[in-house]
Amino acid sequence: MGLNMYGAEELKGRIELKGDAVVCPVVGCRTRVRKMTDETAVCEETGKSLDAHLGMPTTRSREYFGQFLCREHGIYITPSTFIYRDLRDSLVWYDDVDRGLIEGILSAKRMRAQPTTRIVKMLSPGTLSGSWTSTASCQCFWKN
User: Fold this and answer.
1) In a domain, 135, yes or no
2) Could you tell me which residues are beta bridge partners of residue 70?
3) Residue range(s) defining the domain that contains residue 49
């Protein structure tokens, strides 16, 4: 169970970027992880974003997102923030009510994070005519 939230006194003043790596934001930690970018924010093999992975991890998504994880502190690090490996660590307390709420959120996010195919009409500029096409998309919930 979680409850390992980091406070301001345990965190560096900012997240350090070192080329294509990001340094763990916890004071005294020198762990470097791969820098997450728009291109690497979704696991190509599973189609999962980090949020989707946290809600319903698979072996493949664990392997992929492991490159962004400080294993010592249990946080995924991006250039702008960090995310607890255990979502419960983001909560000040965790009881049956919280468990129900977080499960409801995760199930909704799991549904929304699934890739979808849409049929859209591509309009020619300045006209109301065009051709129909199929597009695939996946809704993500955070952006670097």
Assistant:
1) no
2) 75
3) 8-111
Please check whether residue 117 lies inside any domain of the structure. no
Confidence (pTM): 0.65
Q: Which residue has the tokens 């980091």?
A: 6
| Dist. CA 102–CA 118, nearest whole Å | 29
Confidence band, pLDDT 50/70/90 cuts, at residue 139: very low
- Kindly give, in sequence order, each residue whose CB lies less than 8 Å from that of residue 108, ignoring residues fewer than 6 positions away: none
Quote the number of domains for the chain: 1
Give the pLDDT confidence of 109-121 residue by residue, as tens digits. Answer: 655 444 433 333 3
Q: Which residue has the higher pLDDT, 136 or 45?
A: 45
Whether 85 and 75 have beta carbons less than 8 Å apart is answered as yes
Residue 77 contacts residue 15 (beta carbons within 8 Å): yes
